[in-house]
From TrEMBL:
SMART domains: PKS_ER. The lineage of its organism: Bacteria, Bacillati, Actinomycetota, Actinomycetes, Streptosporangiales. Its EC number is 1.1.1.1. It is an enzyme of class 1 (oxidoreductase). This is alcohol dehydrogenase. It catalyses: a secondary alcohol + NAD(+) = a ketone + NADH + H(+); a primary alcohol + NAD(+) = an aldehyde + NADH + H(+). Belongs to the zinc-containing alcohol dehydrogenase family. Its cofactor is Zn(2+). PROSITE patterns: ADH_ZINC. Residues 8-340 form the Enoyl reductase (ER) domain. SUPFAM superfamilies: GroES-like, NAD(P)-binding Rossmann-fold domains. It comes from Thermobifida alba. Keywords: Metal-binding, Oxidoreductase, Zinc.
Amino acid sequence: MRALRYDGKAPYLEEVPAPTAGPGQVVLEVTGAGLCHSDLAVMSRPPQDLPYDLPITLGHEAVGVVVDVGAGVRGLSGGEEVAVYGPWGCGACRSCLAGAENHCPYARAAGILPPGLGADGALADYLLVDHPRHLVPLGGLDPVRAAPLTDAGLTSYHAVRSALPGLPPDGTVLVIGIGGLGHVAVQILRALSAARIVAVDLAADKLDLALRCGADSALFGDDTVPEQVRELTGGAGADVVLDFVATDATLRTAAHSLRPGGEISVVGVGSGRLPVAVNLVPLGATVRTPYWGTRSDLVDVLGLARAGRITVEVEEYPLEEALLAYERLERGQVRGRAVVTP
Ligand code: NAD
Ligand code: ZN
Ligand code: ZN
């Protein structure tokens, strides 16, 4: 089969043997695989700093059709279309049993790594999935628009759900970075909260997208944002800031835009630092670093899509053009999410 591999230098397309399902495993024919900015972060790191061996097949956002089930797999039949839960855990600890495999403290030491981020991923004709519990039926969703729900959607939903208790209906939430994740986060916020949504980006088309996704205001991301947020909120500041970029500049904007007792959710994996000390962040502030989401979060996010409350804006590419799509993502040219349909 064809696979987009990464060897520590650059991604390349290669013929590799198609996987077969061992006991308890499932093989999917990939029908949609999203490209995430985290892939670029991985490829910008020295290979020796990665917590897994290379080469691997990239792609950690996936939907596919079941084509092979291993011995002992029950309740799944060939031909079913499913979304893949990516942050695989040990399956047995307290976090995993609660569905929060994204918080499993044992997976890495046990050699259990997410597809595309350690295990072979979805930018290929077929994907091997370790266990059927990682699969959620698509229930009629379009596979191309559904693939990003497994990360851009799931991570955004998890971050929003975690921050919602601190976001009153007449409150304000600042969303920084209206890319693959941010444009879904705005829609999730619109669906779940009456709060004022203020979007921030550096590109005019992303600001337009934010407004179409339900944001109340869209601001160019310079150092006047905190002042503008204060004006919009009668001097109070935002109750919640979701930072999908996380450079020094955006984290400073987050801290300066927040009200006392507010929450900063650092979702982006930019290389910025947020100094946390009295007088550096508002009094009583909470800083959260959400990672991906829980298994039930994925069920919820697919439900929001099925209810028509969130629609991922997608650019579709064949596998042969995945490199071009990564280049566009790097240059900030992708509107919404780039999805490969092998
Ligand atoms: P993306 O490239 O699709 O979107 C990033 C957006 O941020 C773009 O619209 C860009 O114009 C905007 N932007 C860049 N610099 C900015 C600035 N200084 N101010 C305002 N806007 C700015 O990226 P994505 O795939 O949506 O990922 C967003 C971030 O989230 C990345 O850092 C990614 O690695 C990270 N991520 C984290 C998790 C997690 O579990 N925590 C999961 C997925 C992705
Ligand atoms: Zn990702
Ligand atoms: Zn576990």
